[in-house]
Amino acid sequence: MKFTDFNLKDTILAAVTEAGFTEPSPVQKDAIPLVLEGHDMIAQAQTGTGKTAAFGLPIMSMMKGDGSVEGLVIVPTRELAMQVSDELFRFGKLSGLKTATVYGGTAYGKQIERIKQASIVVATPGRLQDLLMSGKIKLNPHFVVLDEADEMLDMGFLDEIKNIFTFLPKERQTLMFSATMPKGIRKLAEQILNDPKTVSITKSESTNSKITQYYYVVQERERDDALVRLIDYKNPDKCIIFCRMKKEVDRLVAHLTAQGFKVSGLHGDMEQKQREVTIRAFKQGGIDIFVATDVAARGLDVNDVTHVFNYHIPFDSESYVHRIGRTGRGGKTGEAITLVSPNELRTIKRIEKDVGAKLITQVIPTRMEVQNNRNDELIAKIAQIQITDKAIELVKTLQHDLDIVTIAHLLASMVQSEISVKGKDHIGLGLEEVELLIERAMQNRGNSGGGRGRGNYRGNNNRRRSGGGDRNKHGRNGRSGRNGGQGSNRG
Ligand code: ADP
Ligand code: MG
Q1: What was the pLDDT predicted at 198?
Q2: What is the pTM of this model?
């Protein structure tokens, strides 16, 4: 299917071509025709699936461009407002459709001026409500879009949204987009949508295809070592590491900085300016690693994130989906890597089931494996390098005292010392051990399917007996868990 298969205006199609889009994404395929037919719509699709174009292209295609505000897009954060606005600007510029971005924390005057010239207003709920209630602006948009509706409710914007709708015309086409569909969203949909069509991009389509998902089982105290080893091994261009708590973000930033990574934390309570500067550095490559909490990473839309790490497993499946959706965007591939402790195996299994994706268990690579990887990279690099005159001179000088083989060995050692991998050799649990623990976790849960023993654990009976089940009786699990936790907090 191509964009030309939709009944879009020529100038909009030209803008799509200019943007470099060749094939519509699944949500675009489903949503664009429905929107063009004039239906209200509720669409569920994960982040990074191209929702902006899914609503932007059809509504812009139907706009008259008469100078009035014809479309209103409500988004949860200022950042998203800017991103969505930029994207819509790209689509609309050949059609002469201007966008205005409206968010809190800046002067009213300029924003109001822009709104007066715009066909589309992209706004955060707080400032929009201000402007409407104070009578500073009046809007009569035919198209109203709620983008990332679940995040807006999570952020506590329900009242604002309801209030905003009292200022909007009854005659309108309303579209709602959300990565998840909790009850609150469905209830809001009932209130603001009129006989809506539903679009749901199934999980396998939105999460699986481009993101490979791994998990590694480690003891609590091994999390830091495991993380560093995995970063060393995967060598990500850009990655985001998710933590549960702010203080863990700080601790990890310090730890990773000390290891020589270009890393920065992303905090919920960071000042907006500072946040933008940090995000820009991340986008441009001055920072390779972001450490963030779920809240801080809301609305963070950075392309080219190659890896998402869950330092701790998120509390629920929806956060998991949100988190890993930060990679694999715009048709690129990505990897999601989760560290779990033996106690968390049940949780990861539940998440796996909820998201309907396969999570692959792997063993943390040994120091040797990472080193070998690096050697391979080094050999490839050496093959590319040009010999310089200065190098020839240097070797000549060295040859006064040393033979050529010794010189080669010394130089190789020097280069290798720079890429040497730190840490202990083996980190985390082995595959057999993990499978055994999973089996036991499922059994304890009273899961009938898990009760069947599997054939491939022969000779493991001793280990099986010394595992978690017996420990529970002695109350050791809880203690070792807590100790481990403290240890890793101190790093
Ligand atoms: P979402 O709102 O679902 O999180 P976006 O609309 O922000 O996703 O799109 C994510 C990225 O994918 C953006 O950089 C966008 O330009 C790009 N994109 C969207 N649709 C397509 C497409 N059909 N082909 C290629 N890239 C696309
Ligand atoms: Mg979006």
Answers
A1: 94
A2: 0.56
| Residue of minimum CA distance from atom 13 in ligand 1 | 330
What is the rounded CA–CA span in Å between residue 335 and residue 348? 16
With residue 335 as reference, give the H or E element that holds it.
strand 334-340
Q: Which residue has the higher pLDDT, 106 or 34?
A: 34
pLDDT of residue 301: 76
Binning pLDDT at 50, 70 and 90, where does residue 303 land?
confident
User: Residue 476: inside a domain, yes or no?
Assistant: no
Mean of pLDDT values over 434-462: 55
Neighbours of ion ligand 2 (CB under 5 A): 51
User: What's the rounded Cα separation, in Å, for the pair 148 and 150?
Assistant: 6
Please give the distance of CA 473 from its chain centroid, rounded to a whole number.
Answer: 40
Evaluate whether 218 touches 344 at the Cβ level (below 8 Å): no
Ligand 1 is surrounded, with C-beta below 6 A, by 21, 23-25, 28, 45, 47-53, 87, 301, 303, 329-331
Q: Do 411 and 456 fall within a single domain?
A: no
Ligand with an atom nearest the CA of residue 73: 2
Q: What mean pLDDT value characterizes the chain?
A: 86
Q: Are residues 340 and 463 in the same domain?
A: yes
65: left (phi over 0), alpha (psi -120 to 50) or beta: left
pLDDT at 5 over 70: yes
31: pLDDT strictly greater than 60: yes
Same domain, 191 and 257: no
Question: Token match 């299994």: residue?
Answer: 349
Site to substitute for ligand 1 among 2, 29, 84, 329, most atoms within 8 A of C-beta: 329
With cut-offs at 50, 70 and 90, classify the pLDDT of residue 310.
Answer: very high
Query: Do 259 and 372 belong to one domain?
Result: no
326 & 404 share domain: no
| Percent of the chain at pLDDT exceeding 70 | 88
Supply φ then ψ for residue 269, to 5 degrees.
Answer: -100, 15
Burial of 214 (0-12, 13-18, 19+ CB in 10 A): middle
Nearest residue CA, atom 11 of ligand 1?
330
Beta bridge partners of 337: 214, 309
Let me know if residue 220 belongs to a domain: yes
In a domain, 447, yes or no: yes
Pocket test for ligand 1, best of 52, 60, 298, 326 (most atoms within 8 A of CB): 52
User: Does 481 fall in a domain?
Assistant: no
> Which domain range does residue 399 map to?
368-419
Alpha helices of 118-260 — where are they, by DSSP H?
A: 125-133, 149-154, 158-166, 183-192, 203, 223-234, 246-258
Same domain, 70 and 185: yes
Indicate the number of domains in the chain. 3
Please list the residues that pair with 217 across neighbouring strands.
Answer: 340
Q: Which of 148, 166, 201 is the last residue of a domain?
A: 201
Percentage of the chain exceeding pLDDT 90: 59
